[in-house]
Design a protein that fits this description.
This protein is mainly β and 317 residues long. Helix content is 5%, strand content 35%. The radius of gyration is 24 Å and the shape is elongated.
């Protein structure tokens, strides 16, 4: 919120730039936990820029961060019918006609994501009770956040805890398509005078072209031996009832993590895709072991699709 005036603040100069730095309509959000697992507040640092640019390598690292508390979660597709608003400020009225402000209204957001699977609403609501913020991404691909008082960090704008809701809205024949509606309030603690924009021209990748990571399910197929096992890698949570959507082309051995019960890392000597999403793994002889298998591959580009897998347990004879 803008905040109350403080005693001793005095007046501010009110001149403006001939070319103001303005955010266009919001098209996406980057969801980020307020604090990481070490208790540090998540932010974009001024020192993260290289020659004035936010590098693609930095963004790729944030999207594929192994620590989920530091990871960037981009909303899918782009918003339509965005309606930013603000709750009313409250005042106390006196019999003399005077009034005194009691509380400042807060910013609200409403938008829809058309033609989107209903499961996405459930995924978005899962993290809604935690403490998190959101960077706003506009139609140009610029980022908006809250700048620290020393000007060295840009924080995600804090969402009021408990205010976030994502709901599925069914289509209406001949009138409207299925969509998800997103609503929330920003926290009262947001210092709106500190909101700042990273110009799209200073970001090395088009954030509007990035799809969020997809979760993959790993299911063991066939019978494991001391040197081989097989698994089906498929999209989790989406698709028609009974449909299997394979994740194809993940045959680079280094993209797979295999850890035994002694926490030793085993790099497969070969990963072969037999049919779509069906992989055969060859490893060094590891008899009578419990192996934890997961996909850890990182795409070459931030705009390439990223996958995060569940962990598969394989027991060798």
């Amino acid at each position: 919120m803008s905040g109350f005036c403080k005693c001793g603040d005095g007046q501010e100069n009110l001149g403006v730039l001939g070319c103001p730095r303005l955010l266009e309509s919001v098209k996406k959000h980057i969801r980020v936990a307020t604090f990481d697992s070490q208790g540090n507040r998540n932010s974009i640092l001024k020192s993260d820029f290289v020659d004035g640019q936010l590098p693609e390598a930095y963004i790729l690292g944030k999207l594929n961060e192994t620590d989920a508390s530091k990871r960037w979660y981009l909303t899918p597709k782009t918003y339509e019918n965005v309606e930013p608003s603000r709750t009313d400020s409250s005042f106390e009225d006196f019999s003399s006609g005077a009034k005194v402000k009691i509380d400042t209204g807060v910013k609200e957001f409403s938008g829809i994501i058309p033609q989107t699977d209903g499961q996405v609403a459930g995924k978005m609501n899962k993290g809604a009770c935690s403490s998190f913020g959101q960077f706003e991404i506009d139609t140009a691909g610029s980022i908006k956040g809250e700048m620290s008082l020393d000007g060295l960090e840009l924080f995600p704008i804090t969402v009021a805890q408990g205010s976030f809701e994502a709901v599925e809205i069914d289509p209406v024949e001949g009138s409207s398509v299925q969509r998800i509606q997103i609503t929330f309030q920003y926290a009262k603690t947001v210092n709106e005078s500190q909101l700042r924009i990273v110009n799209a021209e200073n970001i090395d990748v088009d954030l509007l072209k990035i799809n969020g990571a997809l979760t993959g399910d790993l299911e063991e197929t066939g019978t494991a031996t001391a040197t081989t096992f097989s698994a089906l890698f498929s999209i989790d949570s989406f698709g028609y009832f009974g449909e299997v959507i394979p994740i194809e082309g993940q045959v680079t051995p280094a993209d797979w993590s295999i850890v035994d019960s002694g926490l030793n890392v085993i790099v497969p000597s070969a990963v072969v895709e037999i049919v779509a999403g069906q992989y055969d793994f060859t490893i060094a002889s590891t008899p009578s072991e419990t192996l934890k298998v997961s996909f850890i591959g990182v795409p070459a580009s931030a705009t390439d699709q990223a996958y995060v897998s569940k962990t598969l347990t394989v027991t060798t004879p």
